[in-house]
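FORM 7B: Structural annotation worksheet

SECTION A. Query
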Amino acid sequence: MITLGQHKCVLFDVDGTIAETEGQAHLPAFNLALQDAGLSWRWNRADYKQLLKTAGGFERLMRYAQEQGADPEAMRDQLSAAHKAKNVFFAQILAAGSVPARTGLRELIMALARADINWGVVTTTSRFNWEALCRYSLAPLGLPSPVVIVCGEDVSKKKPDPEAYQLALKRCGLPAQACIAIEDSRNGLISAQATGLEVAIVKSEFFADEDFTVAALVVNELTELADKVRALTE
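SECTION B. Predicted structure
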């Protein structure tokens, strides 16, 4: 069982954890980008659930090309351009205000602040995508700024590799024992635990049925974690 009062910083994953961006923004953005690139591929939710086992949007495109019998290396430039276009579509979807933060996020971060616990972001999505989410979905919440932000460009290996969390701890100047990670996927769980972090899982749309038996805590919504933190200051 996690004892949040013993921690100095809570490190949040982004997609699925801070907001349900995968189904609400990433998937439609991919399909718009595929259409824009003149490709006949279209992904439904079942397709995307399987593709999410591969970390990184460009990596998913390369994987899908191979699965379709194409030569992904021969398509590298086309898929790279499609991925860049996808990020633009992603930002446009967020700008429309259709992707709110997950229920309880504001309550949790404000409760952490009252308990003198910082928060940070550890994601292997792109900085462009994080900044779009921050601008359109998080800024209206009036949250304190995260003390550390690690994005995909900051690391050479994506989750489940632990590099992103290792870098976050280095930048925070804190040992793993002083932090906790909040994730929504098994890849994220493996990444954080390999760094020595305790991990709380908040179930999300695409990963709720994964194996989280080794997580320190599993909740359905962030409000459950906010309640635990509020108890520290009451």
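SECTION C. Observations
The domain at 22-95 is CATH 1.10.150.240 (DNA polymerase; domain 1). The two ends are 20 Å apart (CA to CA).

SECTION D. Sign-off
Analyst initials: ____
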